[in-house]
Amino acid sequence: MVNQIDPRVVRTGQLIREAFRELLRQKGFDDITIKDIAERATINRATFYTHYEDKYALLDEIIEQAFRKMIPGPVEHALKFTDEICNELILMTYRYILDFYEICRMDSKSIATLVDEKIKRLLQQIIERIFVKGDYPHSADPNQTTILAAMTGSAIYSAAYQWFKAGERERKDLLVDMVRPYVMNGLGLS
């Protein structure tokens, strides 16, 4: 295991992530090898493997780091799932999808599925945390809370993804106006 505090280790991790991002812009995920990443990062393959198990673990970390950086303060500190929090989650998810899919060459169904599932899980975690903090009838039952958070996160992600696929870049307000009532009514919070 590598020492995560050592500045050299931190710098090497940054080099690996930057190299991987550059490669994702240039070629498909399936075509990227560990050798490609190591050469671009100016490290050897063994060094890559001291940091990551494989390119899937690297992708997972990059997805999560980028997504967590986009979480607005009001969502991060939310005590209730309000219309405003729902709006923020919808817009944040849409922005993430837009950024990720436009930066990366998404010509692989496997990477698209990994990204989709990871973002849905991250959304679920955020929403579940808010539900637990709030005083909702379902928050007493952890299973019910988890299921409602999963459904809510999936609805938000699916709507934002379809909006992206439809090419509606300029009408984010319409996306929010369509999705928020659906989500809030489904949760019984409207």
Automatic annotation (TrEMBL):
For this UniProt record, the keywords arranged alphabetically read as follows: DNA-binding
A GO molecular function for this record? DNA binding
What range(s) does the HTH tetR-type domain occupy? 10-70
Positions of the DNA-binding region: 33-52
- Key word DNA-binding present: yes
Is-annotated flag, keyword Transcription?
no
Name the record gives this protein: TetR family transcriptional regulator
